[in-house]
Amino acid sequence: MASSISMKSLSRLQFRQFFRGKKGRDMLGPAILVVYFWILEIVLAVQLGEKLPPLVGVLIFASFLIPDFLMKVIFERDHTVMDPFLKTRPVPQSLWDRFLTVSQFWNPSNLLMPAIIAPACFLFLAFPLSLVVFVTLYLASVFGGFLVMLIKHRGTYQSEKSETKKAARTFKSTTGHAIFGLQTKSVLRSKRLKTAIIYMSTLMLFFFVINALNGDSETVRMFLFYFIILSASMLTQYGLGVEAGFFSAIWTRPVSISRILRDKFKMSAAMGGISALITIPVCIWTGIPVYIPVAYALFTVGFGSLILLIDAYKCSPFDLFGKSFFNYQGTRATFKASTMLGIIFIMVVALVLPFLLSDLTASVILGGLGLAGIIFHRPYFDWVESKFLKNKHKYIEEYLSK
Amino acid sequence: MITLTELRKLYHQVAALDVDTLTIEEGQIVGLVGNNGAGKTTMMRLILDIIRADRGNVTIDGMRVDQDPSWKAFTGSYLDSTFLVDFYTPEEFFDFVAEAYGIPGNELARRLQAYETLMNGEIMGKGKLIHDHSNGNRQKIGIIGAMLVNPKLLILDEPFNYLDPSSQLVVAKLIREMNRELGTTCLVSSHNLTSINDLCNRILLLEKGRLLMDKTHVPGSTDPGLEAYFLDAVR
């Protein structure tokens, strides 16, 4: 096939589409996540005070490849088929295959794990070995990305067949109605959101149960809290990101932003409440006081949701159906820096208080904060709405331009 | 009904819309025409308070749209797909619209009957998400979502796009009936001069953001001046 398109052109296209769809603040959230782990690693290294034995170190770092691979299997989509704007042009398949392979070296999902563990490698292992381990892990992650690409590949027309099948699927309105349904159905009908909730919650629940059976109380409390906050904040962490994708449908109708925020709050309450209920039998069985999950649920919903939604309107539209190769992860929405800081703040409050005080006192304080949030959520969201309205055009124009 | 006063919108220092004054009277069907980049959609977005004017203001029934949201209660609009909730089925979307405007369920069902011809048995009862519908059906769902609230003011951007000829005629008929029976003021933009000529009793021509022509029009007639303008534009 005669073509003048090159690897360089494809790479340039990919980089431009990736970076032009993002603003500086979109990148700040993941950066904060990485820095958060770096700080944790430095604290751990200082506490340990010495390097790890080489074999133990290598085994520990090698174990990071498992979650790294699993996360890719869960979240990566089949992006081996060219987007229509390329497919309809003379791009040789061999060039495309080479590009898919080579681009694994800078695929963000293959860079995340090495970026997170980089300081730990050098802090916990002796220098020459740390360099070898780090480079090997990076290459292994790239290889993992390549394997996932092969696993997810369904052939040129398979993906189109599945699109046709998807278009023929039917839905029944069983959960949530009209305006409130925006919250329930966006979760249930978005594979990405639903998958994230199910997998991440199951993982945290698993760690909670395992630790409840034979772990120390701090770890048990940590995973109990992670399980509850994960499900309760799954939607609130994106702010109005889902609504931003169809904002005109709300804005041109008599539906207030505070109403949407209250619905998000209720959805978070339902998710947090269900999570807490799930943990209660395990708590009773293993002798963990039941007031702890109750306090965590109240705190997460009443206090945490309010913190996460404080600037809900500063968001990128969440493309529930996005699937293009260049549109990584099938969504434009990313964690905001403020959301990341909010989550860290909520975690610190929830996990540090029981260290400083007794379980009961900490639970009373956390539950009390949550109850106060539940009582005052209505005026609080009116206040958030008033902040949005002061600069409404700026935000709406941003939603529409993405 | 709608007044635009010294309205100006700039994009990168270039005027996308620059209108000194414009008043649209109650009960008119106003056609908005102009080539690409003329400012038709910008005007509609400013009227709907979706974007901020760099100068001037828009009032509906004497109230500034950017200061008083009461216009939303009697306005129906459809400009593009961001007016649709695409992870809803059409029924769920109409329920959403009905709840927003306080329309009871039985009244909603009654009003939807008026759109059965337009839906042509392809929209309701299929259990398909709006996202999975064809462009034509999505356009119909958006138009019905705007009209079923029986608005005092109806704003439609390119309503005939994606529609087959039969559906274009049905939409034009529905707009005409709504205007006649409810006195609805309609603002409709289109590149289809025939549809605009058939439907509207006033035509506005925009060019590079400026109002070039503002004519009363007899629906069903052709406007030689308008056709001459578009022919000249390509010469």
The total beta strand count of chain A reads 0
**Tertiary shape of chain B:** globular
The Cα radius of gyration of chain B reads: 18 Å
| Helix percentage range of chain B | 25-40%
Query: How many strands, what sense, and barrel or not for the largest sheet of chain B?
Result: 6 strands, mixed
The CATH C-level name of the domain at 2-81 and 152-233 in chain B is Alpha Beta
Order of helices and strands of chain B: EEEHEEEHHHHEHEHEEH
The helix fraction of chain A, in percent, is over 70%
Give the N-to-C terminal Cα separation of chain A: 35 Å
Biggest contact: A-B, 34 and 37 residues
Number of strands of chain B: 10
Strand order of the largest sheet of chain B: 6-7-8-3-9-10
Identify the quaternary structure here: heterodimer
Q: What's the number of helices of chain B? A: 8
Low-confidence stretches of chain A: 324-331
User: So, the CATH homologous superfamily of the domain at 2-81 and 152-233 in chain B?
Assistant: P-loop containing nucleotide triphosphate hydrolases
* Overall shape of chain A: globular
Poorly predicted tracts of residues of chain B: none
Write a concise synopsis of the structure shown.
The complex is a heterodimer of chains A (402) and B (235). Chain A has helices at residues 7-20, 24-48, 54-63, 65-75, 84-87, 93-102, 108-124, 127-152, 156-167, 181-188, 191-214, 217-232, 241-244, 247-251, 257-286, 291-308, 337-356, 359-390, 392-401.
Commentary on this structure:
- The complex is a heterodimer of chains A (402) and B (235).
- With 402 residues, chain A is mainly α.
- Chain A has helices at residues 7-20, 24-48, 54-63, 65-75, 84-87, 93-102, 108-124, 127-152, 156-167, 181-188, 191-214, 217-232, 241-244, 247-251, 257-286, 291-308, 337-356, 359-390, 392-401.
- Chain A is globular and about 70 Å long.
- Chain A starts with 6 loop residues before the first helix and ends with a helix.
- Mean pLDDT of chain A is 83; it is low at 324-331.
- With 235 residues, chain B is α/β, with parallel strands linked by helices.
- Chain B has a domain at 2-81 and 152-233: 3-Layer(aba) Sandwich (Rossmann fold), CATH 3.40.50.300.
- Chain B is 35% helix and 26% strand.
- Chain B has eight helices and ten strands.
- Chain B has helices spanning 40-47, 90-101, 105-113, 116-119, 135-147, 165-182, 193-199, 224-234, and strands at 2-11, 14-24, 29-33, 55-60, 63-64, 75-78, 153-157, 185-189, 202-207, 210-216.
- In chain B, the strands form two sheets. Chain B has a six-stranded mixed sheet, with helices on both faces. Chain B has a four-stranded antiparallel sheet with strand order 2-1-4-5.
- In chain B, a hairpin with a 2-residue loop joins strand 9 (202-207) and strand 10.
- The longest helix of chain B has 18 residues, at 165-182.
- The relative contact order of chain B is 0.19.
- The model of chain B has no long low-confidence stretch (mean pLDDT 94).
